[in-house]
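Anyone able to model this chain together with calcium ion?
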Amino acid sequence: MSATCDETHDPGLQSWVTTANDPDTDFPIQNLPFGRFRPAGGQDGDSEWRIGVAIGDQVLDLQATGLVASTDMKALMSTAPAARRALRLKLSQGLREGSATEASWRNALSPMAAVTMGLPCEIGDYTDFYVGLHHAIAVGKQFRPDNPLLPNYQWVPIGYHGRSSTINVSGTDFPRPVGQRRGEDDKHPAFGPSARVDLELEVGVFIGQGNEQGRPITIGDAEDHVFGIALFNDWSARDLQAWEYQPLGPFLSKNFASTVSPWIVTMEALAPFRSAFERPAGDPEPLPYLDSQANRAQGAIDIGLEVWLQTARMRAAGSSGQRLSQSNFASAAYWTVAQLVAHHTVNGCSLRSGDLFGSGTLSGAAPGQEGSMLEMSLGGKRPITLDNGETRSFLEDGDAIVLRGRCQRDGARSIGFGTCRATVLPALT
Ligand code: CA
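re: yes, here you go
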């Protein structure tokens, strides 16, 4: 594990990009997340994505700083941890107040509002895990009231292989999926638009350095292979899911769209927000390949998470929306990022730079901490009433979901993840 703090985390650092010094910005000089952007005026396909670093309300063009020659994000992500830390230090030094590079780097800045953000990288293989203990229990209760948590949950980080072709960057709206669904009392399935489109509050873990097939990544090395974390919404069609998921798991109920935020917050930036990882008293200890002293000491990552809903009526009324829930990665997750990497590769499976893990829905234990509508509305049995009087069991056409994430701790400069937003459009049929 390499979660150590250095001078780049000093909460007293200020940037000559003055908007980075705003206490409320997600992107102070202590963050320095990476994303891909096209400059203003660029059209889809007419210019290559460039690597940017978010600083305040600006995007720093990494190539224009001279620190990196290539615009290949996956190549950058696959560099060794020492090289990543060296680049972070150079960025921090160059963006600090009084830096000699200010004059030349000013020309490398573009206002965030004027550029187009793409996916943070070309995403390779996508695996969705199920680390949210409270989500697993709450959903399990709806299907198996007497036995909500299946016996493998405490032993195996549960996951399935998903599909990356329909993972979109924040801001990409998508049509309501159509498919088969069968109600409890129906003899045959019906076909049509899903009536139970839901969100899933997750974080996305981006793999940096991969591994060779047959060479597992140990838990001790696991975080060296992780580039960073973004927000992730694994949109789900619950009616399609209920009908199709046995015996092989989710399929069309999940792969119609997922949304990822444009900025990858690096593992280095998250170093001040690590905490001890503890299992509930009485739970079995993980098997040795999933256990280490370092993982116990600082395996958790304290990321505050929020789900916001903006309905079409709210949008028409000029409202930015309503917060539906608040949760936290550290308290919601039963498995750490390092455990996911170690488990994924223990059989010899290879990971590659640009692969993405979804964490699984990160619901807290208490009301108001649900990471899905399925939990908020008890599977549709108890619709929620919004502040403007509208009600929801699941998402309606025109509903936008916005995920937010922020790390805060005494003695550290708080950092954020930006937003992960998309709107459900009417079905195409
Ligand atoms: Ca999921």
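The pocket of calcium ion is lined by residues 128, 200, 202, 234, 358, 360-361 (CB under 6 Å).
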